[in-house]
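Lab notebook, bench 4. Still working through the backlog of constructs that have no structural model yet. Next entry is a single chain of 437 residues. Request: give me the structure tokens for it.
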Amino acid sequence: MKETLLSNCERDFLLQAIAEKKRLDGRQTYDYRKMKITFGTDYGCCFVDLGKTRVMAQVSCELVAPKESRPNEGIMFFNIELSPMASPTFEQGRQSELSVKLNRQLERCLRNSKCIDTESLCVVSGEKVWKIRVDVHVLNHDGNLMDVASIAAITALCHFRRPDVSIQGDEVTVYSPEERDPIPLSIYHMPISVSFSFFQQGTYLLVDPCEREERVMDGLLMIAMNKHREICSIQSSGGIMLLKEQVMRCSKIASVKVSEITELLIKALENDKKARKEGGRCGFAESMPQERITALKFEETSVEMTDVAERASDVVQGAEAPPLMVPSPVVPVPGVGQVGLGLQNTWGLEEEEEDDEEEEAEECANRGEEGEEKVTKMEVERHKKDASREEDVVVLSDSEEEEVVVLHPETSAKTPNTAGPRSHQNGAATSKKRKKK
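Model written out:
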């Protein structure tokens, strides 16, 4: 992913602020950001925070064959990883120009300066030597990666302990930390890098540039120095030409900053050593925040705890014994709810329903005989009504020959059973007469 460019307004704002000797985070020209050094659980693991920039360094070792040109010296290897977790501009599994530049500068700062005694890493001349590997992982990128990487690497090397080794004939025995105490590395001095950024062709100078300041700078000068004011390496990048006075001025500022950082580094190592010796919180456990409630505190009240056991025994003896058996609830009918422990329902709904059902059954039994008589009378009345309806019949016909005929019975029927057929016969006779006419 390509780096997002700054707009012209942002660039002009940053350059104008630098010209007025103002910085985004409120620092002065030669001020470093707040630095914090912590250690992991194992030896050789170090975390360095410089503002929002965070770097982790891990040191490991293994027995390997030495180089043919230097059979009596150990091997130092440095590796810097820029993961996308630190910045979206970093790509996974691909070395960028920045990673190669940082790796070479770190090798010049630590390996070429001979800060570590490599001859002490030899186990068997020409056969077995210790290979010290320093892996630097950038966890968050907010500018000035070189300074943070150099501080984390040298701090991790000072904190690292290699296993103890014994030689008997041709056999090489490596002891675990439980069998023998591990041995620290032999370190002569501690070189630390200090970065200076130049703006407007070297007119303005800043120490410890942040990520946005690095985007608008014209050049960068990195000076690696120890507390004895010995310059271990120096490198300039960018398209600017620096004067001798500018380089000497930067070296004087670097000597002051290196002495301050070295004191902080030594103090952090001593505190970690003291904490590990006393068995206190160290490493990852020390970095975990302690969750404590600092608000809503109440004053402590004095409580007498002298005769607590006697009072407790008196209370237990005076208490009633719990029941051995607990009555189980009984549900009278499946699907019926129950209130209480095995007691009858006091709402009275079921009793009222039962009384209503008994009254309805008695009324039906009393009305049984009267109902049969009423049924017979009702049937007779229905037959009479049907007979009367059949007498008054209106027939509608759509044929051309026949017309609408209304039938009137000549004689009334004596009984409802015989009225119907007679009326039909009379009607049929009259209709035939009209057709003949």
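Notes after review: Residues 393-402, 411-437 have pLDDT under 50 and may be disordered. The longest helix spans residues 349-391. Flag for follow-up if needed.
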